[in-house]
Here is the input.
Amino acid sequence: DIVMTQSPDSLAVSLGERATINCRSSESILYSSNNNNYLAWYQQKPGQPPKLLIYWASNRQSGVPERFSGSGSGTDFTLTISSLQAEDVAVYYCQQYYSPPWTFGQGTMVEIK
Amino acid sequence: QVQLQQWGAGLLKPSETLSLTCGVYGGSFRSFFWGWIRQPPGRRLEWIGESNHSGSTKYNPSLKSRVTISVDTSKNQFSLKLTSVTAADTAVYYCAMSRGTFDFWGQGTLVAVSS
Here is the structure.
């Protein structure tokens, strides 16, 4: 199985400041034939199912605010919230869909400082 | 916009069979895979498996011996059965539309296993 490891486990950021979450896969999830990274990011608020934010490592899902962006390639990826809003308080997960079983990171809790 | 609504028993005894069903509304049931993901308390999300409309399935090897995912195309529904449950199977179970990514999710069902 591909192991997904996120860092940090939690972070506290002031409103309007940048939040950065890292995700590392135990092997490359870049498919060379199409140059796509099979990496997604989700946001989960308490009592709710996860919500897809980013796919192919850097493509925003429809309706997701522009302050959310994804980057990275191969084994190292980043989710950035450029200007943290109160409604962004949540747990964020990365997920690989390169090779089954699809696997998730352990989650990063984002709070307001 | 696809909506998923799930239902099933929330309290089981050890050795019983977990059974959940998910209804799909507003989307093309034949175009995607339909899967189940669980979230044990304090632990990461775990993909259980998925099926397409014709019954082609993929399962997580860690659960494969106990899991069956089936579909009912006449009702746009799919179901999860997990046999011989133990306390380790206590989790919130979600159904979801799968394209590798999970674009739409059910509301979740807390399943507790306790004697």
User: Anything to note?
Assistant: The radius of gyration of chain B is 13 Å. The longest strand of chain B covers residues 91-99.
